[in-house]
Amino acid sequence: MLKLDAVTVRFGGLTALSDVSFEIPQGEILGLVGPNGAGKTTLFNSISGLVKARGQITFDGKNVIRLPLHRRARVGIGRTFQIPQPMHHLSVRENLAVAQVFGAGRYDPKRIDEILTVMELSHKADADAASALALQELKRLEIAKALATEPKLLLLDEVLAGLESNAKRTFMLKLRELHRLFGLTIVIVEHDIETISELCTRAVVLNFGQLIADGTPAEVFANPAVMESYTGTAHA
Amino acid sequence: MTELVLQALFSGVLIGGVYALVALGLALAFGAMRIINLAHGELVLLAAYMAYLVESRTGLDPYFAIPLALIVVGVASWILFLLVDRIKDHRELNSLILTFAIGIILTNAILLLFASDVRTTSSAFLQDAVSFGDVYAMRGELIAFVLALVLMGVLWWWLKSSWYGRAVRAVSSNRGAAQLMGINPTRIETVSFLVAGALASFAGIALYTMSVVQPATGHALTVKAFIITVLAGVGSIPGVFLGAVLLGLTEALTVTFASSALQELAGMVLFLLVLFFMPNGLFGARARRG
Ligand SMILES: Nc1ncnc2c1ncn2[C@@H]1O[C@H](COP(=O)(O)OP(=O)(O)OP(=O)(O)O)[C@@H](O)[C@H]1O
Ligand SMILES: [Mg+2]
After folding, report:
1. Mean pLDDT over each residue of chain B, to the nearest integer
2. Where are the domains of chain B?
């Protein structure tokens, strides 16, 4: 469903992504791992259109690399930000409604209620999105907004960070539920090896902008090069 | 004495409605595109002269100029948008220079076409005095004020309840996030400019019916809109309305008790006082958003 072919991103002299190629089949939950600054968020940015990339990004059989942001959202690429980006001065429900109308091209309040329920935001539906929500609620809103655009592919950037282990477990179940309920393909950035191993069927590893491993979580985390890149940053 | 005060207060409130329309147009374009349109007052002026044109050529009431003003100002807004949209680098700063220049061009075009004379409506109907006890208003002032209130209501409803209005708020609040929700920001910016142009059209005609206009009025209106925006922040329609009424009152009291020559200066003094004593605007930090 998504195919990256020699995707390269440079910021001035810094090569944030260098010839990254891999493919994600429909329905997969893929873990994207790597140390801080490895280029994970940059990869999401290039897929969703926030940064200009070279190479090819094929989504559903079409090269989307020249499509502007909003068109990529409309063809079914949804994402969340590491730091939540609510649209303030809009209520939680309006955030979702706008996302649905402009992203999915239809208005279906029932579906919005469903998303609110799944993401446990119903009680804050009419609150102002930016000022009335706690950080974890903002993170759930981030996912809810992406879901409202009715994506086929969902890119999740460190949505589990900052949760203690019980909450993390609950949230993983939630992600599984979303995956099944909405028929999604998911790529998730996450530092915690256990989480990746439990949630994902496959993991790819970035280091200094290069793809250094691709396989099942067990294979990837048994790879010495991966563990070496990891030890500097991710003892957690 | 009290009658003079009451009369000044009343006139100040009435002109405040039109000032609010001018300021809301400026705020709308600013919210969506993050640029300050220094030619906004000239768009209002353009509409006022369309009213003059229709009235002087056909003898019709100035409000019959609404369709013409909407078309002319709409086209002007759209061209303005296209020009601003072409600026790729340092848009905030370069757009100031660009729109300032466009304002000068419009002022001079109007000067060329309509001469520098002061113009106002000659409609007896609009200039008729209506009395409320001890205070008077021209019928034109009352109509303009009611029109302003209605338009503010429509704008409020549009921003709150229509999909485009919500998208305008979304783009104003978080452009990147809005784009990822499938919103085409260029489309929304165009819509904002056109709505701002429509507000300017009504404001210009209303101004012509209740006050006097001349080519220099455009620039003065931009300054007023700017003062109101700083007073009120760009967050809320009622806030802008209150800021506009306050400016109207200040001007009217100055004209009544000092001199009409000091009218523009009074607004600037108010502006400086508020900046100095209430740097977050009249309504505190909360209202200054967007
Ligand atoms: N807009 C930008 N301009 C310049 N450099 C950037 C930009 N965005 C990212 N970078 C740089 O690109 C590199 C990759 O950053 P990126 O945010 O993709 O890493 P990451 O893997 O998501 O890290 P983290 O785990 O900290 O989120 C870093 O060196 C970063 O400083
Ligand atoms: Mg990151």
Report:
1. 91
2. 2-288
Say how many Å lie between the CA of residue A190 and the centre of ligand 2: 9
- Taking only the tens place, the pLDDT of each residue in B28-47 is 989 888 889 999 999 999 99
Q: What residues does the ion ligand 2 have nearby, CB within 5 Å? A: A 41
| ipTM confidence score | 0.88
Mean pLDDT of A103-122: 96
Q: Pick the residue from chain B with its C-alpha nearest to A75.
A: B182
Query: What is the number of domains present in chain A?
Result: 1
Structure tokens at B200: 């300017």
In a domain, A19, yes or no: no
Which amino acid, one-letter code, is at B62? P
In degrees and rounded to multiples of 5, residue A196 shows phi and psi of: -60, -45
Supply the pTM of this predicted model: 0.88
Strands A210-215 vs A202-207: parallel, antiparallel or unpaired = antiparallel
Distance A53 CA to ligand 2 centre (A): 17
Tell whether ligand 1 has an atom less than 6 A from the beta carbon of residue A155.
no
As given in the structure block, the two tokens for residue A226 are: 């991966």
CB contact under 8 A, B235 and A69: no
pLDDT per residue as tens digits for the range A116-129: 999 999 999 998 87
Distance A15 CA to ligand 1 centre (A): 10
CATH topology of domain B2-288: ABC transporter involved in vitamin B12 uptake, BtuC (1.10.3470)
DSSP string, chain B: -HHHHHHHHHHHHHHHHHHHHHHHHHHHHHHHH----TTHHHHHHHHHHHHHHHHHHH---GGGGHHHHHHHHHHHHHHHHHHHHT--SSHHHHHHHHHHHHHHHHHHHHHHHH-S--B----HHHH-EEEETTEEEEHHHHHHHHHHHHHHHHHHHHHHHSHHHHHHHHHHH-HHHHHHTT--HHHHHHHHHHHHHHHHHHHHHHHHHHS-B-TTHHHHHHHHHHHHHHHH-SS-HHHHHHHHHHHHHHHHHHHHHS-GGGHHHHHHHHHHHHHHH-TT-TTHHHHS--
Q: Is A190 part of any domain?
A: no
Is residue B288 pLDDT above 80, yes or no?
A: no
Residue A120 belongs to domain spanning? 83-149
From the CA of A17, give the closest atom in ligand 1. Answer: 14
Strand, coil or helix: what is A229? helix
Whether residue A5 lies inside any domain: the answer is no
Give the best residue of A67, A88, A115 to mutate against chain B (max B CB count within 10 A). Answer: A88
What span, in angstroms and rounded, lies between the C-alpha atoms of B267 and A89? 30
Whether residue A134 is contained in a domain is answered as yes
Among B166, B179, B290, the residue with its CB nearest the CB of A94 is B166
Residue of A51, A70, A77 to mutate for B, most B C-beta atoms under 10 A: A70
